[in-house]
Structures are given as C-alpha cells and as structure tokens.
Amino acid sequence: MYSKNEDFFYEIKKIEKILWDVEIFEKNNFLYEIQLLPALERLSHFFSRCKVKSLLLPKIIDRDRNDNDFMLSRKVLHELVKIHPEESCLILQPQEVPADNKISILNAFPNFEVALRQMDSWPGVFLWDNDDYLFVPIENKEDLIKVFLILRYENSPFPYIKSVVRRRKKKNHYYFHLSDLHLSGNEFHRERRLKTLITKELNRLEGEDNIDFIITGDVVDSPTKNNFARYEGFSDFIENKISKSPLFVLGNHDISSRGLSFFPGRKRLFDSIKSLVSANKSLFIDEKNKLIFLLFNSNTGGDWARGEIGMHQMAEIGNQLDSIRNLESYKLIAVLHHHIVAIPRPDVYDIRWYERIFPGTFYDEALKLIDAKIFIEWLKQRNVKLVIHGHKHIPFVTEKEGIHVISCGSSTGHIAHRDANKTYMSYNIIKIEGDSVLCTQHVEEIIGAGPKSIRSVGFKI
Length: 461
What we know:
This protein is of the alpha/beta class. It is 34% helix and 20% strand. The longest helix is centred in the N-terminal third of the chain and has 21 residues, at 29-49. Residues 1-6 and 262-279 have low confidence and may be disordered.
C-alpha cells in the first residue's frame, strides 16, 4: 500500500508493529484496547476520506513467472499515486502472491465476491465506493493506467468502466450447489428464505452468464407424497429462474423414513419418487464446457444412514462412459450424497443428543459411505478430479489423493447450532472454466440477516 500522506503511512507501520508479535497480542487484551483499536479507528478515518478504494489483484491461477510483474511493481504503484494525489483514491497493492496455484480466501467482505468469482480472469482491479463496486480485468500496464485515469477525470467513472468491461466480458458458467433441503410440512420460512437468497445471487450474476443448479440429495425429510410435492414446487421455482430443471442425486432421507434404515438389503421406498427417479439420469453431459457429471445414487446399500455406491453402479456408469466418443476431451465430475472423506465439525455446531449417547467413532461409522475406499480407487482410475456431495450438513473443501472434494452444508439450515437462535444455511457457487475451478461457500447464521462468504477456493482439475 502506498500513500503520499505521511500520517497515513505512520499509522500503517504502527499497526504492523502491534500485530507483529501475535503471542503477546493474544495474551494482552489491554494492549489491544489501548493501542490497536485507536490505531484502527484513525486508519478507518483515512479510508473514509478516499472517494474511491481500489485493490490490485495479481494473477494467481495458472500464472507464468512474468504475469504479475507490473501488478506487483512499486514503480507502477508510484505512477498510479501520481494520478491520484492525496486522498482522491486509496490504492492497495499486495506484496506477493501465494507460492502455488491453490488459494483459499476466508471471510471476504460481500461485495468482493464479484472479483472472487472471476479469479481466473485476474490480474485485475477491484473498485468500490459508498454506492457501487466492480471488478475490472487487466491485460497489461497500459490497461491499468487507463482505469486510474478514468477514475481521476471522468465525472461518472463507474458506469463508464462498466460499459467497457461488459463489451469485453466473456460468458461464464456457474453451478449453484445446494444440498440437504429436508423439505417437509414445517418451516416454510426456511424454504422461502432460500428462494430469496437464490434470487439475490442470480441477480448479482451477469445476464450473459450460464447457470445450472446441482442438489446433492435429501431434498425432503421423509419420502412422502406431500413432501415431494414441496420439492417439485421448489424445482419449478428454479426452472422458472434459469429455464432448466436442477440436476439432483438421491439422499438417504429421500428413500427412507427419517433417513434411517435398519435392515441391509431392504426394499427402498421408491414408489413416492418414481417420477423423480425416472426423470434423472446417470450422466449429464455439458457439451459446451466439455464436462460430464456422473450422478451416483449412494443409497444402494448400507444400514442406518450409511451409503454405498455398489459394484453394479460403478460398472454401469463405466459402460456409459466407454460408449462416449472422444471421452478424453471431457472433464469428469462425480456427484453423490454421501461423503467420501472425513469432514471436521465446525465450532458452531452443537452435539445432538444421540451423538452424546453413542461414541463419536460409532456415530461417524453410522453415516459413512461403506465402500468409499474402492470408490476413490474407481475415481482415480477414471481420472475424476472433482467430487461434489452433501450429507454431513457441513460446508467444506478438501483434497484426497489428488481428488478435490466440495461439500455443501444444509441449504435450509437444518443443523444443531450452539446458539439456539442461529442456524447455518449453506450454499456453494462453483465456477468451472477449462481446468480451473473456483468455489465460493456461503452461510447465513441468523436467518434473514444476510449471507457471508466463509471460504473461496481456487484449484486446477
């Protein structure tokens, strides 16, 4: 960060000094109160005096050695500051970029997500003021200088820059990932709230962007006709928004009362959902983006809430894949309900009564995919680099033996929160461009208070 204002520079250095010794800072709340808070307050005052704020965003994914030379250059930063003397524009510049192509950004402020969703288009500049915000892709130093000249001399710079960006913008494809809706006769306010959040997110995307919805199981709480009528209404809501029905896979609650079954090999309750099952397919081919989604039913076996893929299903989907011409030109993505790797419990989640009765390992065993090990081997041999699932009601992103795994929590907030007045409504927005994947995970803890981005992760597949 650079500024001609020496007082501003002094405050930054003071905050850096306070935060330098984290151990002392954490042990001394008095230090926090008498030094850090006043310094941050003065810094906030400096920020408020700047009409426009800007953040330079270097290239992170799939970068070459010289991609970011001009974005990280102190000399270029000084040129930008000359265009904006004193407080006409705050210019923030990172000192370096991560060492590898994987990045995870936690708890970003909401408007910044417009830049996170286009991380594959970085380098760029994120701009914001009291009324508006936008992301501007940057190709070279000349583009960067032009943006800051427009900010300095144009009367209405944001609309002007937006019109230029819109002319250049390429179409993006987003996958809206929901899970574990547990629709039933109760709690209509949760479903209504989720619809509002979906509408808000769709409005934030550009009109030219393509959108699909993926729901990873437990669309209802128990497989009754009334509950599935609720889901059909929800599916119609999505279809009215994007002119396409959502992709979905079955969860244990979709086929067994309360999601539990006590007899391995039992007859599943498919009668209530026969129309849904017949409408769903094992493969969804996105020809334009050269993606194939493998839609697994992970409920072919297993007692309690456990799941199983089964040899028959792996063989059948393998047969379908082998019938596709030029299969090597597609990226394969597996979609199922049950988790294939362990997922840590967030601190905000309470321990349910039945988890207190049974030991933790016993409870975890009652939820797992019983053939996860052989299924992971199948995925590796098929070169599947991305798995999307639900089931545990915990949003998470991890990697297992070269396979990236994205988990969605409950999109209607069906969790036991430590604070009885809070929930944890969860949804993911996944952007796939070539072999680049960007996933932003959102939660809303206080229903109606507004969602926040808890994690943004970019990686290659």
